[in-house]
Amino acid sequence: MSKKTIALIVVIILLVVIGAVIYFTSQNSNQTEGNNNQETLADQTEENNQVANDVVAEDNNTAENTETGSGKTLVVYFSAQGHTESVAQKIANNLGADIFKLVPTQEYTSADLDWTDSNSRVTQEYEDESLRNIALNSTTVENWDSYDTVLIGYPIWWGIVAWPVDTFVKVNDFTGKTVIPFCTSSSSGLGQSGDLLAQEAGTGTWLEGHRFSSNPSDSDIDAWTATIQ
26 has which bridge partners? Predict the structure, then answer.
């Protein structure tokens, strides 16, 4: 065999070896790149899933806070002759609010409420402030902390709040609550009744109140509640 033939065979073998090396190197590189891409895709998928889970968790927390947190409204009232009670019930219906009635342990009779009689109960209580500490059947509202807005209704007695309401206001904590007073009166205005209650409470955000006549129309009540919804 000639030297040229041997040299040609050697060159061919080298080319085959080099080609094989290049092929297998290329295959390994592609496989490594594919594995890296799969790992990257897996990492990205995991990250996207985590973000989605976080969003769902945040939405769930928001829904839970909405359900158990803000927005609940309570109407608290004292009514001596039924006028304030009628208004309070209409307000509660309009606002979808809960309602809590203040009932004196010793309820007022018609004779007690005769302000023209100097010997009547309300007249004596008016003249002697020490008699105005009126005991109530209950001052405790169930789930009090769940209410963000509290409306307090009362009749006006001698230009001020009917004093059974004072008992309730003094013993409850209005921190974090918006409080809106309203009154019923045949002639007197709201006056300083709301401000005096706010001073007695010492807590809460007290807004300007509203005065209704003793027998207001539904439209009058509707118009007012529409401003606070």
Answer: none
